[in-house]
Amino acid sequence: MGAALGSQKWMTLKQHDSTTQCLQRLKEDGYKIVASDLHTNSLQSNQIDWRQLTTNGSQPNTTTSTGSEADWKVAIVMGNESTGITPIARDMADHLLYIPMRGFAESLNLSVAVAVLCTQLDHQTMLKCGLTTPIENRVLLTWLARSVRRSWTILEQKKIPVPFVSMYERINNVTTRP
Q1: What is the DSSP-derived secondary structure letter of residue 5?
Q2: What is the 3-state secondary structure (H, E, C) of 39-101?
Q3: What is the pLDDT of residues 124-156, one digit of tens each?
Q4: pLDDT (tens digit, 9 = 90+) per residue, 59-80?
Q5: What is the dihedral of CA 143, 71, 92, 4, to 10 degrees?
Q6: What angle do CA 131, 68, 28 make, to 5 degrees?
């Protein structure tokens, strides 16, 4: 995570023993799995109506938007630039997508590809902050604790109460440990 330049302080990570275990858990939690893949069955990312990728079993629709935001639980799997996703991820994915490109290049840097997808999601108003104020404050405090040296000591000296014992406390059943 050294290349992330500190973004891991904002991220919530969960470690799994295998790709299968991770994707199975996501499916059990009601997520649709969408994987990026240069496959003949892949849909162009800019033509997907993301609201149609709901947990009700519907197929992706590229024309209309009727999916409820409450139903919208999608996990996007991105592969690396040289080998893409694993065969297991391809087999377990509910839908495959690719980012259409012009020219001779066949892939984008991972961070660029994620930025393109996030922009497309944002254009369809699918990216919304769903944190309650207490959880948002806890995430902010966790970031602050990870970013400022001796932050716990400073907070104690200023008599500012810390609402949790560990900066790696579980938030919504997910660890905040980088």
Answers
A1: T
A2: CCCCEEHHHCEHHHCCCCCCCCECCCCCCCHHHCCEEEECCECCCECCHHHHHHCCEEEECCC
A3: 878 766 777 777 777 777 777 777 777 777 777
A4: 444 433 444 444 568 899 998 8
A5: -20
A6: 70
